[in-house]
Amino acid sequence: MSRVKEFKLPDLGEGLTEGEILKWLVAEGDTVTQNQPIVEVETAKAAVEIPAKWAGRVTKIFHGEGDTVEVGAPIIAIDTDPSGEPLPSPEPSAASLAAVEVAPAEGMVEPGLIGGSAPGGRTAVLVGYGPRTGPATRRARKQPAETSAPGPASSGPTSAGSEATGARREDEAARALGPARAERAPSGAAASAKGRAKPPVRKLARDLGVDLAELTGSGPHGSITREDVETAANGARTGQVAPPVFGPEREQRIPIKGVRKLMAENMVSSAFTAPHVTEFLTVDATRAMRAVDRLRALPDWRGVRVSPLLLVAKAVLLAAARHPLVNSTWSDQTGEIVVKEYVNLGIAAATPRGLIVPNIKDAGRLSLRELADALTELVATAKEGRTSPADMAGGTLTITNVGVFGVDSGTPILPPGESAILAFGAVRPMPWVVKGRVRVRQVTTLALSFDHRVIDGELGSAFLRDIGAFLEDPQTTLLSWT
Predict the structure, then answer these.
(1) Known catalytic residues?
(2) What is the DSSP code (8-state) at residue 271?
(3) CA 288 to chain CA centroid, nearest Å
(4) Nearest-10 crossing angle of helices 308-322, 457-472
(5) At 142, phi and psi to the nearest 5?
(6) Is the Cβ–Cβ distance between 374 and 360 less than 8 Å?
(7) 37 near 25, Cβ under 8 Å?
């Protein structure tokens, strides 16, 4: 007897009411395993992959790609017992593995949880995690076609024989899944050539936000080199984007939805609710830039991404500890100003889907090295479109780094519920008076916007001046403030 169950679009966090189907990872007739990613959905806050709640065979897909679906509406039907007997646990194919994101490193569990608990007391997460449906086996070696970061199983050299074997297995798996699935599975030769790169090049691509799958390698056998990655990154920074597609009326219409819609609503609400005040401070950041260079040269910091933003973030955290009222929320509902002991430090990030502001939880408790790692992970996750709704909730204080766009300053708008946001401008060589003489120094401009209901001019000026003092002399301020 067939047991067909309808899987409904879950609430992916923060009371979201709808989501857009971006991409189906399965087709009708496919066999799926429990917790296998089946669909990619974009909500008003992030794009996430949703796993299958049950193992079985897909009998119906209710909505196509591009459709907007309300939370609670069925999106897919799965026959959990198509043969009247328990389904065997199929071995994962290379084609199915290519659709699954790499599990978080070092046993960390990503936020955005749904489903029940998994063995060992842990909780099933949205992507690639959950109870095993078969005997324990060694993790399959990922083929070079994948563009995710290599783990221990994929970091070593791959022989031509093993590549050929992997290609044959992939083709066999594609045929076993049916004609529709086989058409979507890449051939072994194409898969092995696409996205091939050495581990250091993969790491560079992650750091620069470059998708290896979009590159054509210029190295031996079509492999991707450091130069290929750097060229792609430089092209992205100089604004080389796809040209707009105009219709017969010579206009392009872009639907207002998802992340962009939420961003617009939040900015309008904040701009017309909190009275904004913006102050500017131009500082000599030469010593801060030297500190960045010294950190990069330390043996213990090799491989760590160190940027001026790291020191700005540390300066904001230390200044917030000296002026706690800056890290607070104005509440009309309770008639209170809620001062937070913890600092969930938001970092504004521009993504293809729009502006998002993920935050580092309790950032004030992190060491400088831990803060550097958290910033790297936050930026990489945002550029890959994998930021979860939980990562964007609960921010208390934000930095927007407009300097990466070559901009000197701006008047940032407060994220809803926050009382202050700092804009960090470009660091440029400029003439500066040092001990009565004009010198060429590394200079930047800071802009602090704040809610004047909570922060008056004196407090805002003191907070901004402390951030500037740290950038002018990081060593002295660290010794005197801590």
Answers:
(1) 452
(2) H
(3) 27
(4) 140
(5) -75, 140
(6) yes
(7) yes
Mean pLDDT throughout 170-195? 42
Return the structure tokens found at 118.
């998994």
Separation of alpha carbons 85 and 90, rounded Å: 15
> CB under 8 Å to 370, separation ≥6 — which residues?
none
Domains (ranges, CATH) in the chain?
4-148 (2.40.50.100), 259-481 (3.30.559.10)
Q: Which two tokens stand for residue 111?
A: 């936020």
Q: How far is CA 10 from the centre of its chain?
A: 21
- Cα distance between residue 380 and residue 367, in whole Å: 20
* Helix (H), strand (E) counts: the chain: 13, 21
DSSP one-letter string for 183-203: HHSPPHHHHHHTT-B-HHHHH
- Alpha helix (H) residue ranges in 298-343: 308-322
Strand 56-61 with 31-32, pairing: antiparallel
Distance between CA atoms of 68 and 305, rounded to whole angstroms? 38
Q: Looking at 54-68, 111-125, 264-278, which range is the least confident one?
A: 111-125
Spatial distance between the Cα atoms of 18 and 44, rounded to a whole number of angstroms? 8
| Higher per-residue pLDDT: 60 or 209 | 60
Contacts of 46 (CB under 8 A, 6+ apart): 12, 259, 356, 385, 386, 387, 388, 389, 391, 392
Q: What are the tokens at 311?
A: 């020191």
H or E element, residue 68: strand 68-70
Nearest to 466 by CA among 410, 413, 407, 422: 422
- Provide the whole-model pTM: 0.55
Mean pLDDT confidence for 353-361: 85
